Amino acid sequence: MTRGAASVGVALLFAAAAGGVAGCRGSRSEPTAVHIDGADPHRGETIMETYGCGACHTIPGVRGAKGVVGPPLNAWAERGYIGGELPNTPRNLVTWVMDPPSIEPNTAMPNLGVDEVEAKDIAAYLYTLD
């Protein structure tokens, strides 16, 4: 694969991960309040710092989260898809955070060993980003 083709492939991967083609069916026009039983968005913010999510993503409110490898995570509640593969629902987001390659084998996002409780807290935080 040529360097240019690789760059295009990487750009397409991140566009898909962001779920961000304007006008796609399934995208939300207005954010909705999302509640995840037992989850704490404040813990989610701290967990994202601990796992170093900001090394790859820009994440509003997370200290030092200025990464540009993965898509920015602002306006999460407004997104239609997760990783270009799954409808944006709390259950799907928890599953994605726990093991992204199990859903999209070619994703650049690694399995960081996030457990279900941590993933729920992370999801709860992301859904505050509207």
Secondary-structure element order, as H and E? Answer: HHEEHHH
What is the count of DSSP helices, taking H or I runs of 4+ residues? 5
**Shape category:** globular
What low-confidence regions span 5 or more consecutive residues with pLDDT below 50? Answer: 1-31
What is the tally of beta strands?
2
Q: Estimate the helix proportion, in percent.
A: 25-40%
Q: Describe the main β-sheet briefly.
A: 2 strands, antiparallel
Strand order of the largest sheet: 1-2
Radius of gyration: 14 Å
Percent strand: under 5%
State the end-to-end CA separation. 38 Å
Mean pLDDT across residues: 82
The computed structural class is: mainly alpha
Characteristics of this structure?
5 helices, 130 residues, mainly alpha
What does this 3D model show about the protein?
With 130 residues, the protein is mainly α. The chain contains 5 helices and 2 strands, in the order ααββααα. It has helices spanning 3-18, 41-51, 90-98, 100-103, 116-126, and strands at 81-82, 86-87. The protein has a two-stranded antiparallel ribbon. β1 and β2 form a beta hairpin. α2 (41-51) packs across α5 (116-126). The N and C termini lie far apart (38 Å).
